[in-house]
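Section 3.1 - Work completed
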Amino acid sequence: MTSKTMRGNPLSMRNSFAPDGKWGIPLVKKQELSTDDIMLVACSDTKMNDNEINKKEGVHFFVDDYRFSGIYDNSDSSLKRYSQYAFLLTPDFSTYVDMDLWRQLESVAKNRWVGAYWHGKGRTVIPTISWSDARSFEFCFDGVEQGGTVTVGMIVCKSSRIGFMRGYNEMLECLQPDKIIVFGTPFPEMKGNIVSVDYQSSRKVVR
């Protein structure tokens, strides 16, 4: 593929979606989603041609990155697997404090690009929000339309409660979400319209 051809290929340039913020991160627009009796299935527990019970659930990516690393580079083939489910959370690419900032920025941008791509294909998409320390606040809330539903995970935040809450409160101020789907047990001090999803129940896949 020539350089001219690559510049005209949206999947090569990754610039086919409305940009947001200083870094031009793709914007994931807010969508309506009923959170009554919401259920999630881990991406690692999905399969092609799943049964009708599992298809009523949403897909989450609160697992190790290697389990879903291919969804950015192979966006078409991965969508075939996930599009059968009721809705999709954007992939939770890691933003660890000890990662260089360019890696964290890349993780956020890939999270939003995949979400915008899925939305463009007609899927219901809910953005997953993650952050590290205050340095990441410059970009980690970009690419998400204000006033919609968002998701945060509680799996690895127990060891840094103060840092987590600082980012969570910043997220509330920046995004003003209508609902927050919390994967795991929320801290009592977390404010907002929280919808809690139990971690263990998300692994009870009907086969």
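Second construct:
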Amino acid sequence: MTSRGLTKSDESLVQLLVNAGLKKNIAKTLVYLKKKEETTSVEIESATSLRQPEVSIAMQELRRRKWIIKRDIKKQGKGRPVHAYRLSVPFEEIITTIENDLRKRIEKIEWEIGQLKELSD
């Protein structure tokens, strides 16, 4: 079963990102943002079947990593302000960053294996 706005291919990408170490809410939000030029939190919630707090946490993390940009949308009347989000860097650059992080983890694991072998002799 796929989320309303994500295809099976998108869901596969989400799973790969989760396997690479991203939390599921962050992976789903990132994949959805990849598909859209600009979107709102409400659209992300609807398309990904994530709850508002999950999207909010994902947005905070994506902004911390400087992968998205937030823009305020002028709204008439009272109520909470509406924000629009878009990727701030090409998706390929994000994948390269994740790839580099994975390679560093692999190197660390290989070093630790070497240490285990060396110290167990």
